């Protein structure tokens, strides 16, 4: 039995993780849960699994029999510290996931990571700490899980290129000159994946892929010049890797996050999942084409950000969190999201950060600057 905690348990990743654990009660002992503000669902989940440790960042009241309750900004990090879990599933949305991830690797736990921001913001700290405490970071992000699966069993020095696939989002074929009229409702309807609100908007701007380029860099120790983005509207090939001998391996499957979550929980084994097979009997097509970087300028921001990897990715992410929120609230247009991110990066390009605490400070400053540009 592996002791597991799920951070962000009321969100899309968290609920899928609980589903996997529900299918395999003999393999996993769920000991802790954390949520942002959905106290009712958190309490329900805690009662169902009989967990002892729960954390709630905001909101309440919390009606629970759990014996250890953590509240406030640091609740998730305290939960990781106190619960003694073997596996920490981090499904928190946004920069708030960074410190809990760092705590998980400090504890030597296996970090099943869906929170890509952890690596975007503090990839250097997470990877250095994981090496020191022999903690494993196993990706849950579908593309990175695919890459991880393709690399399993291969010599570490045989990787030539990573080919990161992108659905292209709902506006792949929409003319750029009409982007100013895109409504939040349109941007929230993703063609292939059902996900949380911020990541769905990030998929529409392709900022999600920019974050994933940086995530892949840290996970697989690969330079950005060896990470290629390819638009693949069907979302069946979740990503590919090319080896030195020019052989390419891909991982395919239905778009269901439970596959990546289960793999991270059970690696190097595979757990049976009660899911439909990919239908290979009906004729289907797999298309691939390069992304339109003029239409989706977010992609080039990843490269710009990694020119100053200690600070600019953190600033980029914070500004994007503010910008997507502002778009959803009707304060800015869709085509202004990336402009706001870029301007925040430009204004803060002289920043420094040499510790995780300073990065949290920089995240806060970036949000303030993005807000000030907004108003
Ligand atoms: Mg992804």
Task: Write up this protein.
The protein has helices at residues 12-23, 39-49, 75-83, 98-106, 117-132, 142-151, 184-187, 197-205, 207-220, 257-266, 298-305, 312-328, 337-347, 356-374; strands spanning 2-7, 28-35, 53-56, 68-71, 87-90, 110-113, 137-139, 159-166, 227-231, 237-243, 248-252. It is globular. 48% of the residues are buried. It is of the alpha/beta class. It is 42% helix and 15% strand. A seven-stranded parallel β-sheet has the order 4-3-2-1-5-6-7, sandwiched between helices. A four-stranded mixed β-sheet has the order 9-8-10-11, covered by helices on one side. Strand 6 (110-113), helix 5 (117-132) and strand 7 (137-139) form a beta-alpha-beta unit. It starts with a strand and ends with a helix. Helix 13 (337-347) packs across helix 14 (356-374). It has three domains: 2-139, Rossmann fold; 141-177 and 184-254 and 277-291; 307-375, RNA polymerase sigma factor, region 2, helix turn helix motif (Rna Polymerase Sigma Factor, Chain: A). The structure holds magnesium ion (MG). The site of magnesium ion has 4 residues, from helix 6.
Helix and strand content put the structural class at alpha/beta
Which hetero ligands occur in this complex?
magnesium ion
Overall 3D geometry?
globular
The quaternary organization reads as single chain
Number of strands: 11
The CATH architecture assignment of the largest domain turns out to be 3-Layer(aba) Sandwich
Beta-strand percentage? 15-25%
**How confident overall, as mean pLDDT?**
96
Radius of gyration: 20 Å
Strand order of the largest sheet: 4-3-2-1-5-6-7
What's the number of structural domains?
3
Count of alpha/pi helices = 14
The main pleated sheet reads as:
7 strands, parallel
Q: Could you please say which CATH topology of the largest domain applies here? A: Rossmann fold
- The CATH class of the largest domain is Alpha Beta
């Amino acid at each position: 039995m592996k002791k597991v905690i799920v951070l962000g348990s009321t969100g899309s990743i968290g609920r899928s993780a609980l589903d996997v654990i529900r299918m395999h009660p003999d393999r996993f002992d769920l000991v802790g849960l954390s949520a942002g503000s959905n106290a009712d669902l958190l309490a329900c989940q805690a009662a169902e699994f009989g967990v002892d440790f729960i954390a709630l960042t905001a909101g309440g009241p919390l009606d629970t029999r759990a014996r250890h309750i953590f509240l406030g900004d640091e609740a998730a990090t305290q939960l990781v510290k106190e619960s003694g879990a073997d596996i920490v599933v981090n499904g928190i949305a946004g920069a708030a996931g960074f410190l809990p991830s760092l705590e998980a690797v400090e504890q030597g736990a296996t970090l099943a990571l869906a929170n890509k921001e952890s690596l975007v913001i503090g990839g250097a700290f997470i990877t250095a700490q994981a090496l020191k405490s022999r903690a494993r970071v196993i990706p849950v992000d579908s593309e990175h899980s695919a890459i991880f699966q393709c690399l399993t069993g291969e010599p570490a020095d045989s990787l030539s290129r990573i080919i990161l696939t992108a659905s292209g989002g709902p506006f792949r074929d929409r003319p750029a000159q009409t982007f100013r009229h895109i409504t939040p409702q349109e941007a929230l309807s993703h063609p292939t994946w059902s996900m949380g609100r911020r990541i769905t908007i990030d998929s529409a701007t392709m900022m999600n892929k920019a974050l994933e380029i940086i995530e892949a860099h840290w996970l697989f120790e690969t330079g950005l010049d060896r990470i290629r983005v390819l638009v693949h509207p069907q979302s069946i090939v979740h990503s590919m890797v090319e080896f030195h001998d020019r052989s390419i391996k891909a991982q395919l499957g239905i778009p269901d996050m439970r596959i990546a979550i289960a793999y991270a929980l059970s690696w190097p084994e595979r757990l049976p999942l009660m899911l439909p097979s990919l239908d290979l009997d009906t004729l289907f097509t797999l298309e691939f084409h390069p992304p339109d970087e003029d239409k989706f300028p977010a992609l080039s921001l990843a490269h710009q950000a990694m020119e100053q990897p200690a600070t600019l990715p953190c600033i980029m992410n914070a500004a994007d969190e503010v910008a997507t929120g502002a778009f959803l609230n009707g304060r800015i247009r869709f085509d202004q999201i990336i402009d706001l991110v870029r301007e925040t990066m430009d204004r803060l390009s002289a920043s420094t950060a040499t510790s995780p605490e300073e990065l949290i400070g920089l995240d806060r400053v970036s949000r303030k600057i993005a807000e000030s540009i907004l108003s």
